[in-house]
Write a structure and sequence with these properties.
Two copies of one chain form a homodimer. In chain A, 36% of the residues lie in helices and 20% in strands. Chain A has 614 residues and is an alpha/beta fold.
């Protein structure tokens, strides 16, 4: 395979005037990168490991680039002002010892061009495109076997024009030597020989194949019209074609988050390195913060505080930061309610644990009675929205109304409902809500956040801090003042979260919940058909995660079933209840009801295999 | 551009015997993916949005695949047992309405093939490769214009053999119709017509170009020999060629972390979705944990506890989890020493702040005097290794010896030294060390970790927990027992960290520090030449981060200078000292001394611009 490229970069680019000033043409910047650097990246990606640049005008700028890319060797053409491209190429003869790809420095092109030349079975190949009518093009004339006969900027000098020179050519070493010999005979009378004329000159003795491509996107940039066309039309097309990322093996995650994500979200993590204290990154976090708020509240009244950590970190940030001396009433009807009690206990908060059945609705009257008992001042009430242990959906709106009546601030653990089940913080009277980046928002794990009522948050300022990293008010204030996180945030996870938010908004939360619900209905019908039951009835069910009662069978084994599913690309989740043997299926993430049909089909096979059904 | 693909997938694959059992040939699995699914991913990536599969034998397996990829439409050839590939293709005639790429189902190939066909200027193109001598190949005979004349498995039936059929062909719609017409005339006498014979049949009337590729990698899998060759030779070559990832714009980060990373580390974040409670992910964390330990200690005696959070989270995890009632002595000679005092204060620990000059070594005698004052029992001493504020390197080995003498456990904040400056925890008598994923280890931000002496950690079990998320012993114990993190970890950041560790081990810590030091020497010479000075002298300098005294000039403005550097792809960092105006340069990450030369060159230009130097 060809491993060498030669770039002709000695030209003056005088027709571009003020657009480039003290830079050679190759340093025209499109989308934050000089076009020559784009070309170099494409060459390296295609397997080229030696890039020889023939320089002249402003050679030091290219030499700078050679520091960044050790593959580059610059060779200066001292006579660049009085010679043309063939002399620059001839000047490299001591450095060229093999076949090579020859490129002009002022090109932008779809990188597929390089692969096509590298895999071409013929040794000398000129890449040609369809006619562009862009002015200043070089037309190609070929014989019926597609070998070069002539080329010229003047149409009238040629017969049978149907292709245009791109400026990327594969040249074998023997042909290069013939070019040099030819040039030596011409230089005496004409130093301004170009490489195109030289190819025509030797074409009587050498077969140079003209490979015309269909639908190929490229342009040369010689003047301001070309530049405008490059920026407005050509570069965007190249970008679309090249940024197709290889699809990533798709797994169907039916665990309760991290969930199945789109490939776009996965690739959003791959960004140039950035210091998270830069303004540019501040804008990313500001976007994330504002748009997360907007999903459940008005950003004028509410704000999102980002944290590096899991959903539990966000819950702990609230509980440890906003409760003062008064009591917090915590509703425990599953593992995540219990966890809030554990956090309250570890910080020595005054808390009341209110136990409620794990599989049924909260008795609001009994709850109100506790609030009204009169012995204790209750300032806050904490509740889980969708209890991940069971799929029980707590009626936070009714609890919110109760809190309004008794002047209690409501804290909601929405980790497994946020971005799926519609929430309106103002209407539901929620002061603080916690969630994370890796569940229904369909991003990557590593970021959690608290959405808070600004007024309530301000009044929590005076609560004595109980920790450092998770102190909510400090984190809020610091971001407000600096647009930075207090501590180094998970940079790439935030880029992925930004993409996930964009996709959430495109789909719509209501629509996402409908998609999840449809998948859940398929799950319900499926397990019923297979003779299985689940814990929470549909009237109080989140339709997001379901605790399915394990089949009564001697042959049943959760781990075996799990491994069976896993081998088929499906991940299921164990139960978390002491009271009952269950396993769990979460129908969240970038999945559809069809994936649940697949799950049911596999479950049927497994249950048949163990003899539970026939 | 062609948007349709047709896959012929009705065959029996009978020569593969037990290798596939109840699956069609396309479902042979290589590297965890069925070969047909690889092919489908490549088609989608190349811009194909409609894939028509002609099925027969075990059609339901393909129909299953069509659920996963909505681009697929399966069409069943009921007579698959008595017909051949042309009948399967003919059977699709109602679904084909445009030009298409025709593929066999049992191929593995370099995806470049698809782009080459899509960009080919001719409408009907057979892809051909060099002769493989793999047995069972189909040879091609062409005329001098490379158009198809004949093809056969029998060499003796052809003249001028120099290419082999790959099994990927571009067919225009008019040509497809001619194939159908031709087939209709043959089917009556021969239902077992294949598509190759049909192409030869129409080639007298249609020009079908045979495009022979050089260095093209592919194979068909018809029997067990083919399969062995596919797994051992062909697939690995395809994988190497295809996994070249587009280079990412390189920024030179001279802030004190997150640092410049390799593209390999960036791409390591892109993995199939996985539940972090899976065994497979447990192995990733186990690798990360053990190998991080190994960089500074023997994993038999020491262990690494992973956390989702920044370096500060790891420091807080230690301070809040291991100190009981006795005192901790904290050395404060910079912002990070001060931060440890703040953390101790917020938790109400008994702590002594020992202030030491920010730009000079610690007076060990004075320190020992504090330890020996007799009023307080000191159980722990905390120190920053490399103080990021100034670049002062504290002599932790001497402090460790002092701790040994007085039976004090040493806690080291190694956030900005770990993986650059060699550390030996046992020799230096360090009980706990904190660091993070995004500095000298050259990974992504989001993970921090504590490396602890196991015995000391076990004895911290009885300290009353002061928080939940950052409780060190719980995090340790849970991972030990389950190979899971207690709370959802930053999954993708851990994959990147794994890659970063591999690269750290490849380079070696000593060698990495030499690379950093060489860059630092260039920095020192450079700023001296430009008339600037820095804070800490070289004998106590970490050679990792340098606080440079700001130039005395009316025209100097840090933000302007920062923006100047930023526009050139270089990020510098502000100072953090109250005592003195400084800015900071950290020579860490995937950079070399050449990048620092570039930095010095830019600095010179900036200083000239403001008239500080001439």
């Amino acid at each position: 395979m060809v491993k060498t490229a030669v770039i002709l970069a000695a030209g003056l680019g005088s027709r571009l005037g003020q657009k480039i000033k003290d830079k050679p043409k190759g340093f025209l910047v499109i989308d934050e990168m000089p076009i020559i650097e784009m070309s170099i990246c494409k060459l390296i990606e295609a397997g080229i490991d030696k890039i020889i640049m023939g320089t002249g005008h402003l050679k030091e700028v290219y030499e700078r680039l050679a520091v960044k890319y050790p593959q580059i060797k610059c060779v200066y053409n001292k006579q660049y002002q009085t010679t043309e491209s063939m002399y620059t190429l001839y000047n490299l003869r001591d450095y060229i010892s093999d076949d090579f790809i020859l490129l002009e420095s002022d090109l932008i092109y779809d990188k597929v061009a390089l692969k096509i030349l590298l895999h071409h079975s013929m040794p000398d190949v000129i890449l040609a495109g369809e006619l562009t009518h862009s002015s200043d093009e070089i037309f190609l004339e070929t014989n019926k076997n597609h070998f070069l006969v002539n080329m010229s900027k003047k149409e009238e000098q040629l017969k049978n024009i149907d292709a245009e020179l791109v400026g990327i050519t594969k040249i074998s070493y023997p042909t290069f030597k013939k070019m040099c010999t030819y040039a030596e005979t011409v230089f005496d009378s004409n130093a301004k020989l170009d490489y195109e004329r030289t190819l025509v000159g030797i074409s009587k003795n050498v077969d140079i194949y003209v490979n015309k491509l269909k639908d190929f996107v490229w342009c040369e940039i010689d003047d301001e019209n070309h530049l405008r066309r490059a920026i407005q039309e050509i570069y965007p097309m190249i970008k679309v074609r090249e940024t197709v990322k290889p699809p990533i093996k798709r797994n169907i995650l039916l665990n309760p988050g991290p969930a199945t994500t789109t490939d776009r979200v996965k690739y959003a993590q791959v960004v140039p390195d950035i210091c998270p204290r830069e303004k540019e990154f501040g804008h990313v976090m500001q976007f994330v913060s504002t748009e997360l708020t907007r999903l459940v509240a008005d950003p004028k009244e509410y704000t999102t505080i980002l944290l590096g950590g899991s959903g539990t970190a966000a819950i702990e940030a609230i509980l440890s930061s906003v409760i003062d001396q008064a009591f917090i009433l915590i509703i425990n009807n599953g593992a995540y309610g219990r966890r809030m009690c554990q956090i309250a206990a570890v910080y020595g908060l005054n808390y009341i644990e209110y136990k409620s059945p794990i599989d049924n609705i909260i008795d609001l009257k009994a709850l109100e009675a506790v609030i009204q008992d009169g012995y204790r001042i209750i300032s806050h009430l904490a509740i889980v929205h969708n209890e991940t242990t069971t799929g029980l959906l707590n009626d936070i709106e009714s609890v919110g109304n109760l809190c309004r009546k008794h002047h209690i601030q409501l804290i909601v653990d929405a980790v497994s409902s946020f971005a799926a089940i519609p929430i309106d913080m103002r209407r539901m009277n929620i002061s603080y809500l916690a969630a994370s980046s890796n569940k229904n928002i369909q991003g990557m794990a590593g970021v959690s956040f608290v959405i808070a009522h600004k007024g309530k948050l301000e009044s929590a300022k005076n609560v004595k801090p109980r920790n450092f990293y998770l102190h909510l008010y400090s984190q809020y204030k610091y971001f407000l003042e600096t647009h930075q996180m207090r501590f180094t945030p998970p940079v790439q996870t935030l880029y992925a979260l930004k993409q996930a938010i964009i996709e959430t908004k495109q789909e719509g939360i209501k629509e996402r919940y409908e998609r999840y619900s449809r998948a859940w209905e398929v799950l319900m019908k499926g397990i019923a058909r297979l003779g299985l039951t689940h814990l929470v009835n549909k009237y109080h069910h989140s339709k997001i995660i379901t605790a399915i009662i394990e089949p009564h069978s001697m042959n049943y084994d959760f781990n075996e079933m799990h491994d069976y599913f896993y081998s088929k690309g499906v991940t299921i989740y164990p139960g978390k209840l002491e009271e009952m043997n269950t396993f769990r299926v979460a129908n969240i993430g970038d999945i559809t009801y069809k994936d649940i049909e697949y799950f049911v089909e596999l479950l049927e096979q497994y249950l048949k295999g163990i003899g539970y059904i026939k």
